[in-house]
Design a protein that fits this description.
CATH architecture: 3-Layer(aba) Sandwich
Number of helices: 9
CATH topology: Rossmann fold
CATH superfamily: Vaccinia Virus protein VP39
Radius of gyration: 18 Å
Helix content: 40-55%
CATH class: Alpha Beta
Largest sheet: 7 strands, mixed
Mean pLDDT: 88
Strand content: 15-25%
Structural class: alpha/beta
Shape: globular
Distance between the termini: 62 Å
Low-confidence stretches: 217-228
Number of domains: 1
């Protein structure tokens, strides 16, 4: 949409048109990717992975690091009861907060996810899906103490006492480069945290999943209780 047209339209209308255009682009990108996969994949592929893992494991809450323009939070908001997204850059955080306010179930937090995520986890009482994408990407993004807070994020999640979390890490191709933890280091963290879980890489994202979906595990516990 042309900038001059956006300035003439009421913000809710302009945002609805922007979302409509993004969804049409996503549909095209998804078809193109299925026909000829590329790395990195388009955002449509990443959003589908988040939504499908939330559905598969019966998760109602998404916690994202690296809000950027808020596209993942917007797309996921219709599929999760609550979305919390953390953005380091104050300008990006303010813009995303304005853009996402109309959705009603998205909370934008500004700060370094290495510090903010433990605060979010301290109040968390249910299993959640984590989309970890809070790294420095050059001009237009912010840098914290390191290029990526991924190791600190994973360690914070691993310390959380609630079972059933699912973790998806974007840009798996970067693992082991620069300040990114290696795949072996992530295996060590995940193995100590969840020795019976699964680790896989697909569509340039690394997925850490429990042995059984959270809702299946809850159903099994209910069945045991009923039979006792």
């Amino acid at each position: 949409m042309a900038h001059w047209l956006r300035t003439l339209l009421p913000e809710p209308v302009a945002e609805s048109l922007r979302a409509w255009r993004a969804d049409r682009r996503d549909a095209r990108d998804w078809r193109a990717y299925r026909a000829a996969p590329v790395t990195p994949p388009p955002h449509a592929v990443k959003a589908r992975a988040v939504i499908e893992h939330g559905r598969r494991f019966g998760l109602d809450m998404l916690i994202e690091t690296g809000t950027y323009e808020g596209e993942m939070a917007r797309k996921a908001s219709a599929h999760f009861r609550r979305v919390v997204t953390i953005e380091l850059d104050p300008g990006l955080a303010r813009a995303a907060e304005r853009r996402l306010a109309r959705l009603g179930n998205v909370e934008v937090l500004c700060g370094d996810s290495a510090r903010v995520l433990p605060q979010v986890l301290a109040a968390l009482r249910e299993p959640a899906l984590f989309w970890l994408d809070g790294h420095f990407s050059g001009v237009g993004t912010a840098r914290g103490d390191t290029d990526t807070p991924l190791a600190a994020e994973l360690e914070a999640i691993a310390r959380h006492p609630v079972a059933g979390h699912v973790v998806l890490i974007d840009d798996a191709r970067l693992l082991g480069t620069g300040e990114y933890p290696s795949l072996e280091a992530i295996h060590r963290i995940a193995g100590a945290w969840r020795p019976d879980g699964a680790i896989e890489v697909a569509d340039d994202s690394l997925r850490l999943t429990p042995a059984a979906p959270a809702h299946a595990a809850a159903g099994a516990m209910q069945a045991v209780g009923a039979g006792a």
